[in-house]
Amino acid sequence: MSGGKPAVGVLGAGMMGAGMAASLLRAGHTVLVTPHRSRSAVDRLIAAGAEEAASPADLAARAEVVLTCVPDGPAVEALSETILPVLRPGTLWIDATTSDPDVTRRVAGRVADHGAIFADAPVTGGPAQAEAGELASLVGCRETDLERVETVVRTYSKVVRRFGDIGAGHTAKLLNNLVTQGTMALLAEAFSGARTLGVDWQALYDVMCTGAARSGTLEKAVGPALRGDFDGSRFAICNAEKDLRYAVAALGPRAELARAAHDVLARHVAEGRGDAFVSRMLKPHPDAS
Question: pTM of the predicted model, to two decimals?
Answer without folding.
Answer: 0.94
